[in-house]
Amino acid sequence: MQGARQEKIEKMLQKEFGEIFILYAKKIRNVIISVSEVRITSDLSMARVYLSVFPTAKAAEILEQVNNDNKSLRFELARRLKNNLRIIPEFTFHNDETEEKLAHIDEILKGI
User: Which segments of the chain does DSSP mark as H helices, in order?
Assistant: First the structure.
């Protein structure tokens, strides 16, 4: 069961990371990165950030680059949220594959 504070922090992190990744994607060029979901632990120490990358062929490469830049992304987030959060959680970034799964299910259903 998630608390209201936990949900509020997840939404705040999703919004801020969304803005950060808009700027991050501009440096890479020809890539769109969006934050589809953020899940934070109950003690607020760890968060899983799910990213949607378009084109999907570059998803693995972009995810690796994002994980390599984890510390600088966390620093940028801390700079933006310094007045809202006392402790910035550690982050792990994951590829959000829900769009691909939905497309696959649609293909299966069309074959029936």
Answer: 4-28, 59-68, 70-80, 98-111
